[in-house]
Amino acid sequence: MAIRLTGSPGGGAAPAFDRAALVARGERLLAALDQPEAELSLALVDDETMADMNQRFRGREGPTDVLSFSLVEGEHAEHRGALLGDVIVDLDVALRQAEALGHSLDDELLRLVIHGTLHLLGFDHEQSDEAAVMEARERELWDRLQP
């Protein structure tokens, strides 16, 4: 199992967070999801990059906190190897959300990686019944990944 962490958001100094801890928590997440051989691509971007991606891929204006691009399903799934897909996190949004919720940026990044990874595995929250299932799974994983 492996986490490929990329990205260095532009536009000034990036907020401080523990990159090694994020990778370690991501690896523990994959283990908790019974994906011991899986790989996850995790990219950290800034508001400008995320707004562009959100417009291009979802037709929505402005940045969002996390986008997921699954390789588990779809026309190229058989060629994916161990890679589940890409989770793209907006570091600027994550920082604002962490401050608003009163927790650390490291914790907010984990919350978003859990959310994005569940999307890679087919979880969704468009319908209320789907949202309840996804939220319960997020809480379970959050609890399991706490030190």
Estimated helix fraction:
40-55%
Choose one word for the global shape: globular
Low-confidence stretches: none
**Strand sequence of the main sheet, in spatial order?**
1-2-4-3
Q: State the CATH superfamily name.
A: Metalloproteases ("zincins"), catalytic domain
How many individual helices? 5
The CA-CA distance between the termini, in Å, is: 20 Å
The total number of structural domains is: 1
Secondary-structure topology with pairs:
Elements: E1 2-6, H1 19-32, E2 39-45, H2 47-58, E3 66-70, E4 83-90, H3 91-101, H4 105-120, H5 128-144
Parallel strand pairs: 1-2, 2-4
Antiparallel strand pairs: 3-4
Helix pairs in contact: 1-4, 3-4, 4-5
Offer a quick outline of the entry.
The protein is 48% helix and 17% strand. The protein has helices at residues 19-32, 47-58, 91-101, 105-120, 128-144, and strands at 2-6, 39-45, 66-70, 83-90.
Q: Can you describe this structure?
A:
This protein has about 150 residues and is an alpha/beta fold. The chain has one domain (about 1-145): Metalloproteases ("zincins"), catalytic domain (Collagenase (Catalytic Domain), 3-Layer(aba) Sandwich), CATH 3.40.390.30. Helix content is about 50%, strand content about 15%. It is built from five helices and four strands. The chain has a four-stranded mixed β-sheet with strand order 1-2-4-3. Strand 1 (about 1-5), helix 1 (about 20-30) and strand 2 (about 40-45) form a beta-alpha-beta unit. Helix 1 packs parallel to helix 4 (about 105-120) and helix 3 packs across helix 4. The longest helix has 17 residues, at about 130-145. The radius of gyration is 15 Å and the shape is globular. The mean pLDDT is about 90.
